[in-house]
Design brief:
About 35% of the residues lie in helices and about 25% in strands. It is built from 17 helices and 21 strands. Helix 1 packs parallel to helix 12 and helix 14 (about 355-365) packs across helix 15.
Amino acid sequence: MHRQRRAKIVATLGPASADHDTIRRLFEAGADVFRLNFSHGDHAQHQERLAIIRRIERETGRPIAVLLDLQGPKLRIGRFADGPIDLEAGAGFRLDLDPTPGSAARAPMPHPEIFAALKPGTDLLLDDGKLRLRVTACGPDFAETQVIAGGRLSERKGVNVPGVLLPISALTAKDREDLRFGLELGVDWIALSFVQRPEDLLELRAIVQGRAGVLSKLEKPAAIERLDAIVELSDAVMVARGDLGVEMPAQQVPPIQKRIVRSARQAGKPVIVATQMLESMVGAPVPTRAEASDVATAIYDGADAVMLSAESASGRFPLQAVAMMDSIIAEVEADPHCREAIDASHSTPQRTVSDAICTSLRQVASLLPVATMVTYTRSGYTCLRAARERPSAPVLSITPEIETARRLALAWGVHSVHAEGGVADVPDMVAKASALACREGLAQPGDFVVIAAGMPFGTAGTTNLLHITRA
């Protein structure tokens, strides 16, 4: 079974999609990657869902990627003595480290790292940006603020500090335990939340040690300021528009989204566009026209994947949401203007043998009626470089590593196959590639097939061969 589209779908699992039958139907409807959101649920629930995914993988014979999304540091105000309060614009309001429950005049904020980074004039956003406070005076354990945008405030609401680089690690104690658990289970991707600086990636990579792909969630303005360096240290990135839209003006998010997608594509790293893509389908069987256009924009820009969050995790119509996203992608990719836009957005390849081969793959597909391109890969690098070129023909990735096959399920245009054993020589390589292309429904006997591989066979990082044949 292979998808009739190039862009991929990431579906978040949750209470609405926790059993075998539902997850199987989500996969059949179009989900390529399943996200386990460790901000919710316990280890036992996530372990059960991953076991179901692996069972479906065996049933269907298709590699399926599993993305573990770490919660990251959650900054929140403390509790109130008498329930929610109302903050009036222009009023003063104090935040401090005193754990005593708050009132209409003050509230505890148990985060000394925030106070350490504040200075007069800094804005604090509460409850996803609904309320805005401006610091008038501050110290290591307090901040006096003026209410700029008021409203009702409940306890334990989130705090955002836009434009400030906070001296905190992106990995909390909970994240480290979740990470250890997920790596033992064998997840394929680790998503790091609230990345601020390249050093956050170095910390995570030192723990992961290649056992999973590292994905950066870009949701902080500080990360955008060092975007290229963060992309370079990531195996993939996510445009996490939720917190990004809180900390930055909403009108700035669309161009930032395009900038992130462009940076990731130039680097050849898979990029996911996420958050509220089909939000209305949490409670309705169809999306708004604006939501459909939002998904379409990401596809026109050449994103590797688009993601469903609450729509598939807790909404009333998870199957319809995946099916709708699948149909939007297919409709957009069938538009000739989509191909024109992608062709016009190619960036300069690196001066390497691998990129020379993969650029040639795309050029061959533009000249000949190529049914599929085949990459033999162990690490997945050659396949990702081929996908970076956004060729007109699908990419059949053949790898002896099941972990590589699963990770590549996230990459644009890639149909990944786990095939144990290597190849003996070029004729054997051609025969196996042609047979697999036909078996997977990507080619018919007599179709053109283009193959990229490395000699000597079985050696990582040696892509140096391009072969054109007929299946």
